[in-house]
Amino acid sequence: MGYFELLPTPEDVSEQLSQAGLTAAHRKEALHAVAYFLGEHSDYYDNEWQRVGEKEDRGSHDTLKQLAQEFRDAADAIPDSPTSTS
């Protein structure tokens, strides 16, 4: 999975979500969901690499794993919003 630099960054996604009107809590949840999705796909490619041994599967696993971690880190960096009691 080449062209890592062409993939969206967590900061770009968070900014787009903010521009769409999502609160910090919703952005945090969305980034965690994206990280989970990327992690699941990373696991798939790891399993394929274990099963078949294709070098491209290993590269895909490594790229998606790194990107998933970046999304988790970005989500964790968003401060928790105070809960409202309405």
Outline the secondary-structure elements.
Blueprint lengths: L9 H10 L4 H29 L2 H23 L9
Describe, in plain words, how this protein is organized in 3D.
It is a single chain. It is elongated and about 45 Å long. It has helices at residues 10-19, 24-52, 55-77. The N and C termini lie far apart (47 Å). The mean pLDDT is 86. Helices cover 72% and strands 0% of the residues. By secondary structure, the chain is mainly alpha-helical. The chain contains 3 helices and no strands.
Key words describing this protein structure:
86 residues; mainly alpha; elongated
Short recap of the structure:
This protein is an all-alpha fold and 86 residues long. The chain has helices at 10-19, 24-52, 55-77. Helix 1 packs antiparallel against helix 2 (24-52) and helix 2 runs antiparallel to helix 3.
Helix content: over 70%
**Total strand segments:** 0
Structural class comes to mainly alpha
**Uncertain segments:** none
